[in-house]
Amino acid sequence: MSQVKGRHLIIDAYECDSALLDDLSYLEQTLTNIVLSLGMEKLAFQFHRFEPHGVTGLLLLSTSHMSIHTWPEYSYAAFDLFTCGDNDPSTQIDALLRGLSAKRAHVYGVERSNGKTAVPPMVWELRTLDEQPETEPTHQSVYSSEKANIDLSLDRGDQYDQIERQQLLAGDHKMLFQGTSSYQRVELVEAMEMRMYLDGQLQFSSLDERIYHEALVHPAFTHASSHERVLIVGGGDGLALREVLKYKTVLHVDLVDLDSMVLDVAKYVPKVVLLNESALHDPRVVAHPQDADEFLNNVTTPYQIIIVDFPDPADEIISTLYTKEFFGRLSSCLTDNGVLVCQSFSPEDAPLVYWSIGLTLEDAGLYTKAYHCLVPSFGEWGFHIAGRAPLTVMPKQLLVPTQTLPSDLAPLFAFPTQILEKRNEALVNTLQDLTLHKLYQSEAGKKN
């Protein structure tokens, strides 16, 4: 059997973002990140920008080299990657292409061995975006679903998400990104606005996401006595993070999201970066593409604020993130006077889901305050603030400027009688008795 001595990739990337291809600093950082991801050592580098445009760069590595040359006027870039030993540069092709917003690429790959049997070259084409389709797109992606233990034919979005998504895709639109990770299908669609869907469930619309994210973040900050350390679980799009970073008193943020694809979209897709105001590039932020339960195993310093921005509990797996046990783990990571806020679905469309999340927080030993606001893309939307100690009286004013929150937050904490009445029917969601997804499927009209 031959032993691999090295891997050589030549990549032609087409229909890239021309501005990124002409940004020397960005290209240098992108290639450096790939080198670090591969665990290789950068010995030397040289990058040069030509006039009027174009960049050439070379990184000399402890395990060979990596080079790039760009033609921004043609939205084209050429890469040459060679590594020795166990390092496999093909694992970074997707990050490289997404970093340049490339729509398609041709890859020529060769494995070099010290055996007698040569490995034949491989040539393949990757696509991240297609031309506008007349029907729902069937784009290929730089990601593969072959290893994913999910059924891509299933959506977890409710009937409103499904109808709106179908109408959006049937009309004039642009698919900014589409891929399938090991966890879910990710779609970023632009028509009159930009929308992100995860397995068909709407995550945000650029038209009104600020209403949701300002309501998620700022009431909690007004209740917290200090803001130095913040933990965000979920929220990989970076939009809640954008609001957190408005506070100069924030010194460190850990952003934990299971799906590295969502984090990469937030960090590298230009229009999402513009929307989240480059939040994932802030030096105060450390992004962790891992399971939140695993992350909590290693927390040694508590947080003043924890923000829970998970997807809605549409299935049993996500329901486990809204359990007494998980909320208890989050509580143990809070300072004594710390504050936790949790997005809690719609108190109007699914009051049992909403109040059950609040009751589960309380059963985990936390004191809670319930509030809500109107987000047009989702309807009336609910949140719970929670703390290990009783929460203070509502502060009189916000600490930073916002665009959508009222100057007086008190109305957000008032509920109509018909919603309050459902509070007595709430159930505690535990790992031994997962009920939240069943309530969701019943109240939100989810079809099994």
From TrEMBL:
Pyruvic acid (Ser): modified positions: 64
Cofactor note: Binds 1 pyruvoyl group covalently per subunit.
Family classification: Belongs to the prokaryotic AdoMetDC family. Type 1 subfamily. Belongs to the spermidine/spermine synthase family.
InterPro entries reported in the protein's UniProt record: AdoMetDC_fam_prok, PABS, PABS_CS, S-AdoMet_deCO2ase_core, S-AdoMet_deCOase_pro-enz, SAM-dependent_MTases_sf, Spermi_synthase
Matching Gene3D superfamilies: S-adenosylmethionine decarboxylase (3.60.90.10), Vaccinia Virus protein VP39 (3.40.50.150)
PTM note: Is synthesized initially as an inactive proenzyme. Formation of the active enzyme involves a self-maturation process in which the active site pyruvoyl group is generated from an internal serine residue via an autocatalytic post-translational modification. Two non-identical subunits are generated from the proenzyme in this reaction, and the pyruvate is formed at the N-terminus of the alpha chain, which is derived from the carboxyl end of the proenzyme.
EC number assigned by the record: 4.1.1.50
Keyword RNA-binding set for record: no
Keywords for this protein: Autocatalytic cleavage, Decarboxylase, Lyase, Polyamine biosynthesis, Pyruvate, S-adenosyl-L-methionine, Schiff base, Spermidine biosynthesis, Transferase, Zymogen
Function: Catalyzes the irreversible transfer of a propylamine group from the amino donor S-adenosylmethioninamine (decarboxy-AdoMet) to putrescine (1,4-diaminobutane) to yield spermidine.
Protein name: S-adenosylmethionine decarboxylase proenzyme
UniProt xrefs under Pfam families: AdoMet_dc, Spermine_synth
Active-site residues annotated for this sequence: 64, 69, 84, 309
Self-association and partners: Heterotetramer of two alpha and two beta chains arranged as a dimer of alpha/beta heterodimers. Homodimer or homotetramer.
